[in-house]
Amino acid sequence: MKVAVLVDGYNLIHASPLLKKLWEKSLYLAQERLVRLVANFCSFEGIEGWVVFDAYGRSSVDTVEEIAPSVKMVLTGKGKTADCYIERSVLQKKSDYDYMYVVTADFAEAMTVLDSKILPLSPKNFLKQVETCEQRLKEKSSAPHLEFSSRMADYVEGKLMHKLIKQRK
Cβ distance 5 to 38 under 8 Å? Predict the structure, then answer.
């Protein structure tokens, strides 16, 4: 099943106490942490994702940067909001996916994109899913690993090992 998630970046930052604190220190730090969280989530879940940030006052076109193989960060161009970009993306891409999640705190936006294949998701609910994913990643990385053996005999079959021992003599 092919699934994608489109995230209104600033909506998600304002919904997260951690990201809000980072925002107070540096907008860049908050954006970076959010993008990393979404990239981990998408990688773990095997889905594609876009994190869209308003760059309403910029004097350029939309900027799309690939963060990971399945995650892109978007800065909207002059005169465009994240909502506008997400609406347009949903219309253009919904036939490519079985489902698309739209993460936004904007109720009107959620209703605009509502469709049988488009599922609105509140930032708080999405953050719960991301937190669960982060916890599962931590558990997975702290699982005991197989010990590495430096003995060739542990990796080479008997006949080949016997030939190598003969050559050594």
Answer: yes
